[in-house]
Amino acid sequence: MSERRACRTLGQARATQRKVPRATEFEKRLVARIIERGEGRCLGGFVSWKTWLLILGMMAMGWALRRSGAPFWVIGVLYAGIGTALVTASLTT
Predict the structure, then answer these.
(1) How far from the centroid of its chain's Cα atoms is residue 33's Cα?
(2) 61-91 confidence digits (pLDDT tens)
(3) Would you kindly state where each structural domain of the chain is located, as residue ranges?
(4) Euclidean distance between CA atoms 49 and 36, whole angstroms
(5) Of the four listed, 7, 13, 17, 89, which is most buried by Cβ atoms within 10 Å?
(6) Which pTM value belongs to this model?
(7) Alpha helix locations (H) across 24-93?
């Protein structure tokens, strides 16, 4: 049963039954790291230099792959595989 229907049946406003969001331990650590880096940084300043190197490397490999002359279906399969791997890795963290 949906929240809307349950609240209508009980005659209560939906806001009375809302769950308070609770941050996970990972989210708390991430927010603390961003705050620790300080205000004087640029937009991506909370990311370490190693992560920036990884991002630049991935961008360079994508550029090289598109310039390689490989068929579009091969590039599509590679991008789908990499995307699936990234989503899977983000879910396990």
Answers:
(1) 16
(2) 989 988 998 999 999 999 999 999 989 988 8
(3) 1-45, 47-93
(4) 16
(5) 7
(6) 0.47
(7) 25-37, 49-67, 72-92
Cβ count within 10 A of residue 8: 12
Cα-based angle 18, 24, 30 (whole degrees, multiple of 5): 125
Asked whether residue 45 carries a pLDDT value surpassing 80, the answer given is no
Compute the half-sphere exposure of residue 18: CA atoms within 13 Å on the CB side of its CA: 7
**Cα separations in angstroms, 3 against 10, 52, 62, 74, 90:** 11, 43, 44, 45, 29
Quote the tokens at residue 59: 């961008």
Give the span between the Cα atoms of 24 and 65, in whole angstroms.
38
